[in-house]
C-alpha cells in the first residue's frame, strides 16, 4: 500500500509539472481495495475496472517502470505509451484494463465471467465501478436479456473499503459464492474528504 501511495503522489507531481499529458486519474485513499482484492484472488481470476487503474495494474503484477512509462507516453508502457492513465492492460495477469467510458467495463466484465463459467476454469471476474457507473446505458446493457429472470435475487455485501483485511475477506467470500451460486455485488465504502478539499487523502 505504501508503494502504491508513493507512486500516486509521484504521478501527481509529474502531472502538475506537465510531464504527464492528458488525464491522470489517481487512486489515493483507495489502495486497500487493490491490496485486499489481490490477497484474496489469483492471477487466473479476471479484473476489469474504470479509469482509476494504476494501483490495480500494480497489484496484478505490473511494474513501476511500465506504469510511469505509460503515464509519460513512452513505448515501454503497458499499452506502448498509447493508452495513458486510463487504459492500463495486462492480459497475462488477468487485468483487462481500465476504461475511460463510465460503466463500459460492466458488460465486458459480464463477458469475462461468462467465459470463466463456459471454460469451467474455477476462476471468476471482478468488474469494478463507482457510483456514477450505475446509471449508464452500458450498465443497463449488461442486465439479463431474459425478462423472466430479471427478478432473480443477487446478494450483496457492504464492506469497509478503507480496510485491506475486510476487503480481502469480502473478496474471498465473493469468489467462493460466485463459483458455487452465481453473481454477487459488493459495495466497498470509501471515505472521501469534505467538499472543497482535494479529491483524495494525502495522509
From TrEMBL:
<dbReference type="GO" id="GO:0004739">
    <property type="term" value="F:pyruvate dehydrogenase (acetyl-transferring) activity"/>
</dbReference>
<dbReference type="InterPro" id="IPR029061">
    <property type="entry name" value="THDP-binding"/>
</dbReference>
<feature type="domain" description="Dehydrogenase E1 component">
    <location>
        <begin position="1"/>
        <end position="131"/>
    </location>
</feature>
<dbReference type="GO" id="GO:0006086">
    <property type="term" value="P:pyruvate decarboxylation to acetyl-CoA"/>
</dbReference>
<keyword id="KW-0670">Pyruvate</keyword>
<feature type="domain" description="Dehydrogenase E1 component">
    <location>
        <begin position="133"/>
        <end position="183"/>
    </location>
</feature>
<keyword id="KW-0560">Oxidoreductase</keyword>
<dbReference type="InterPro" id="IPR001017">
    <property type="entry name" value="DH_E1"/>
</dbReference>
<dbReference type="InterPro" id="IPR050642">
    <property type="entry name" value="PDH_E1_Alpha_Subunit"/>
</dbReference>
<keyword id="KW-0786">Thiamine pyrophosphate</keyword>
<protein>
    <submittedName>
        <fullName>PYRUVATE DEHYDROGENASE E1 COMPONENT SUBUNIT ALPHA MITOCHONDRIAL</fullName>
    </submittedName>
</protein>
<dbReference type="Pfam" id="PF00676">
    <property type="entry name" value="E1_dh"/>
</dbReference>
Amino acid at each position: 500500500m505504501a508503494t502504491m501511495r508513493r507512486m500516486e503522489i509521484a504521478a501527481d507531481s509529474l502531472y502538475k509539472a506537465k510531464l504527464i499529458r492528458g488525464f491522470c486519474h489517481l487512486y489515493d485513499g483507495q489502495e486497500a481495495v487493490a491490496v485486499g482484492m489481490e490477497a484474496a484472488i489469483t492471477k487466473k481470476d479476471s479484473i476489469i475496472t474504470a479509469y482509476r487503474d494504476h494501483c490495480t495494474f500494480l497489484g496484478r503484477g505490473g511494474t513501476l517502470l511500465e506504469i510511469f512509462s505509460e503515464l509519460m507516453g513512452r513505448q515501454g508502457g503497458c499499452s506502448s505509451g498509447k493508452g495513458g492513465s486510463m487504459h492500463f492492460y495486462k492480459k497475462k495477469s488477468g487485468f483487462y484494463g481500465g476504461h475511460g467510458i463510465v460503466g463500459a467495463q460492466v458488460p465486458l466484465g459480464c463477458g469475462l465471467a461468462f467465459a470463466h463459467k463456459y471454460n469451467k476454469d474455477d476462476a471468476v471476474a471482478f468488474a469494478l465501478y463507482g457510483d456514477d457507473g450505475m446509471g449508464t446505458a452500458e450498465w443497463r446493457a449488461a442486465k439479463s436479456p431474459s425478462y423472466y429472470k430479471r427478478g432473480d435475487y443477487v446478494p450483496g455485501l457492504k464492506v469497509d473499503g478503507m480496510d485491506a483485511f475486510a476487503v480481502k475477506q469480502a473478496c474471498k467470500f465473493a469468489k467462493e459464492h460466485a463459483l458455487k451460486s452465481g453473481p454477487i455485488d459488493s459495495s466497498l465504502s470509501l471515505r472521501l474528504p469534505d467538499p472543497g478539499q482535494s479529491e483524495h487523502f494525502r495522509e
